[in-house]
Amino acid sequence: MLRQVAEGVLIQQSEFCQTNTVVVQGQAGVLLIDPGILGYEMAALADDLRELDQPVVAGFSTHPHWDHLLWDARLGAAPRYGTARCAATVRDRRLTDADAKARIAAQFIPPDIAPQVSLDLFGLITGLPAPAAQIPWDGPQVRIIEHQAHAPGHAALLIEERGVLVAGDMLSDVLIPMLDLNDTADPIEDYLAALRLLEGVAGDVDVLIPGHGSIGGADQVRARIDQDRAYAHALRDAHVPSDPRVGPSATYGKDWLPGVHARQLQRLARRRERDRTPG
Ligand SMILES: [Zn+2]
Q1: Cα–Cα 20 to 30 A to 278, which of 16, 63, 157, 239?
Q2: Cα 62 to ligand 1 centre (Å)
Q3: For position 273, what pLDDT does the model report?
Q4: pTM score, whole prediction
Q5: Which residues does 88 contact at the CB level (< 8 Å), separation at least 6?
Q6: At what angle do helices 218-236 and 256-276 cross, to 10 degrees?
Q7: 168 CA distance to ligand 1 middle (Å)
């Protein structure tokens, strides 16, 4: 079910992890950002777009994680973009190979939704030449704000003339910051730098669309930046965060997010240990 959140910008939210798919109306069709998760949801989206006479003319994946790299044949064959680093990560990790898909299906996709997740067109991303300032398409200018935080080549998108920030997996009201702990020298500082980058455009934002969670108004942008920064600081200082998102009454506070939080603490402690050991 499509819902308008700003002029010419609509979202559809998945039942899986409140994943937001963003539809931006252009001259001859729409740009689809993070296309969706479940087959029947993408089919419904394709039907809605057909009814509106709005074909998909471009796609974009904010980062190279499975829940942002899916596609459905019914959405058509438009070019699907990502940052150069996003596409390189898909390539280097051979994510489109059959054995990688089997591993993703086994390790990452929850069994209860697996029958509704098709990996047939998974990860077929074209990297935009770096540094790409905007998405090449015939519609409102979409500025790419690339940073290293949650995943390699992670991109937030600013649609300035609509006052919309598509934050990818940053600034969620339901998920804590999840750091990229693979092959990164200083993941916490990377995360803080990314938040500063987003803070730099906060004044231009009336509508905040996170990859997962609820849509925020202008006041939410700084509030969520502050909340994410406090969490990153807590990780850095190995404090217990007083973060409502990992509390027992939170949406994902039962066991999943507290588990993610514990694993992040553990891996960061191990890195500190390793860094202290000479040689
Ligand atoms: Zn995600």
Answers
A1: 239
A2: 9
A3: 87
A4: 0.95
A5: 127, 152, 153
A6: 50
A7: 7
